[in-house]
Amino acid sequence: MKKLLFLFATGILLTTLAACGTEDSDNNSSEEDSSITIEHELGETKVDKNPENVVVFDYGILDTLDKLGIDVAGVPQGNIPSYLSDYDSDNYEDVGSLKEPDFEKIAEVDPDLIIISGRQSDVYDQLKEIAPTVYLGVDTSRYMESFKENMNKVGKIFDKQDEIDQELTKIDDSIEKLEKKAEDTDKNGLVILANEDKISAYGPGSRFGLIHDVFGIQAVDKNIEASTHGKNVSFEYVKEKNPDLLYVIDRGAAITSGEPSAKEMVENDLITDTNAYQNDDITYLDPEYWYLSGGGLVSVQEMIQEVSDSLD
Predict the structure, then answer these.
(1) pTM
(2) Distance CA 33, CA 17 (A)
(3) 75-86, pLDDT tens digit by residue?
(4) Alpha helices, DSSP H only, in the chain?
(5) What is the mean pLDDT of the chain?
(6) Measured between alpha carbons, how far is 232 from 199 in angstroms, rounded to an integer?
């Protein structure tokens, strides 16, 4: 009889332990299902899925979240693009500038996730002490691949992969049509950034090189060294290269949120001799998309449209 009672008690104990083990396993599985590890340029970050309290320092990512209907808690409001002006309000915390995050304000927000890009990369270690921080800057040397990788990471974090796939398909279709237009025109082009009284030129593989690398516009000068800040050039250089298409990005208009100011400087006596000027093929690209944001579902589609319109 004692033996039977012992066996019965042992059976109950084993069943209880097994149940506890199953419960622990289910809890661990639940925790794993509710989080995701994101690999990015600055490291690996474990992030809760569908974070509700998000601080965003990249305007391209902000326009993506806006497109997807995902709310955010804080943004840098100092130079916010006009197409994202809804975020320049008291409904969102102002978390500093693009180059100087307000760490105290960010800590007050107590975010579940911070998203940054190149302008904040130097303070990544400080930001990740406050909350999980993910770098989603675009690698301009492989623009579209990097852009799509970032969009897919957004899709995984916020369970929006189907919507991301649909938007990327639209963008691919737009690029395909633009490439055909560029091929048919057979014109070469040059991209310059106007900054006060100076200009810099950008070629393939550079910050604005997707005009050549992705959109299919032939580069008038293929020997410009790829860099973030471009090659300092003169207007004599532009006249010598004589591009058929001249694309101008006005940095001053971007950082001051003012009216374009580069036209008078750019269209001088030297530039009037170029094919671009004489054929009315100078395009002043929207600096909000090209300089302040870029790399987002909205901004990339708009960038494609601007270059496409320049070929009409």
Answers:
(1) 0.87
(2) 24
(3) 999 889 999 999
(4) 2-33, 59-68, 103-109, 124-130, 143-157, 161-185, 210-213, 235-241, 251-256, 263-266, 275-278, 287, 297-310
(5) 90
(6) 6
